[in-house]
Amino acid sequence: GQNIDQPTEMTATEGAIVQINCTYQTSGFNGLFWYQQHAGEAPTFLSYNVLDGLEEKGRFSSFLSRSKGYSYLLLKELQMKDSASYLCAVRELTTDSWGKFQFGAGTQVVVTP
Amino acid sequence: DVKVTQSSRYLVKRTGEKVFLECVQDMDHENMFWYRQDPGLGLRLIYFSYDVKMKEKGDIPEGYSVSREKKERFSLILESASTNQTSMYLCASSSLKLQGANEQYFGPGTRLTVT
In sequence order, what are the residues at sequence separation of 6 or more whose Cβ sits closer than 8 angstroms to the Cβ of residue B81? Predict the structure, then answer.
């Protein structure tokens, strides 16, 4: 999505921590989502933020600052299976549309031994 | 578990053919979406529907149409396929509850090649 920016690729070693940043611009913010997509597979839902702050889910955490239009996904204790593309998506609520999602181009995370 | 299925995983069509991509979800979701995914461009919304017989254009509707005659089924139609419509097509659905994430569930995708 042209209004959502995230890095193209990040590389980290097994056991390390990686933080994927996402910045966005939207006229009607209604939630920020992170999805994981392995090569050749469909995206799967990881996390959701609608209020400012940190949401923790096991090894994955997601943070949101609505005033800054900024989110990050934190992956801890990296495992080889975490090698995937991570998609940042914003749901928009406008006067003529409900529930429309805008996706970033995705960040390819490469985990090395 | 939510299940979203798509009629084909791989499809090869010729330029000018009419192409139908079918998507079915089994969770009684109100919202259904069609995206295409291309390298470097991410997921781009073609059309979505928030109710039977209702549809809204996404970011790239040109060359496509959709049909939603039943709540569980959302079809994407390429009226006259062109080579620039070669892509991965992903269908998704989500609920419309007042609270909760209402996250999208995706089908496995259809890789369409137009020759």
Answer: B13, B14, B15, B16, B17, B18, B19, B112, B114
Residue A36 pLDDT: 97
* Residue showing tokens 């006259």: B80
Q: For position A1, what pLDDT does the model report? A: 43
| Model pLDDT for residues A14-38, shown as the tens digit of each residue | 999 999 999 999 888 889 999 999 9
Distance CA B76, CA B51 (A): 15
Is the distance from CB of B27 to CB of B95 less than 8 angstroms? yes
Q: How many angstroms separate the CA atoms of A20 and A24, rounded?
A: 13
Q: Is B80 exposed, middle or buried (0-12, 13-18, 19+ CB in 10 A)?
A: exposed
**A48 and B103: CB-CB below 8 Å?**
yes
The residue of A100, A107, A108 whose CB has the most chain B CBs within 10 angstroms, and thus the best one to mutate to test that interface, is A100
